[in-house]
Amino acid sequence: MKYSRLTKEQFEELHQEFINFLATQSITADEWANLKVNKPELAETELDVFSDLIWEGVLNKAEYLEHISAQHMYLFKLGEDNMQAIVLNVKNDMDITTNEGYNWLREHLMDDSVEFFQADKAYSEDKNLDKFKMIEQGAVITKGDLFKYFNKLIS
User: Which InterPro entries match (predicted)?
Assistant: First the structure.
């Protein structure tokens, strides 16, 4: 397995897609029920393969990632050959994950207590795995509104 197995909730959301996946493997509903009971290791493999296919599709489509913590904001634009990063550091105790902290940040963007950095980062040989590792570390896929905003601000 390349990524991680989908959660029970994710499998439930993707129930029809999983049925279609099994159909492409020529596995009927009865055969699937039989597999789960009599060959659980094969059923587990099918779950893993399906999970990887879903992750691969999601990661191929992802264009932006964000990872926001109390004093840091990491914003990434996922390009074809590399990722562009904008990093924002708050050098005081303000927690920008709260409404109060985020409002403070908006009003004090140009203060000395707020630092901006920009960088490009090359992917490894497997860019989707790079993206997945960032998601495992807490990044979320977004539409890129924050990246675009800060990119305009600091360009």
Answer: DUF6495
Q: Is a pLDDT exceeding 90 seen at residue 53?
A: yes
Tokens of 105: 């940040």
Strand order in the sheet with 82-90: 114-122, 82-90, 72-78, 64-68, 140-142
Q: How far is CA 130 from CA 7, 65, 152, in A?
A: 21, 12, 26
Output the CA–CA distances (angstroms, integers) from residue 14 to 25, 107, 132, in the order listed: 17, 42, 19
In the chain, alpha helices (H) = 8-13, 15-24, 29-38, 40-61, 99-107, 127-136, 145-154
**Unique residue bearing structure tokens 């360009």:** 155
Is residue 153 over pLDDT 90? no
Q: Across residues 118-143, what is the average pLDDT?
A: 95
Q: Give me the percent of the chain exceeding a pLDDT of 70.
A: 100
Q: Whole-angstrom Cα distance, residue 11 to residue 26? A: 19
Pairing relationship of beta strands 82-90 and 72-78 according to DSSP bridges: antiparallel
Instruction: Tell me the per-residue pLDDT of 82-110, one tens digit each, with 9 for 90 and over.
Output: 999 999 999 999 899 999 999 999 898 88
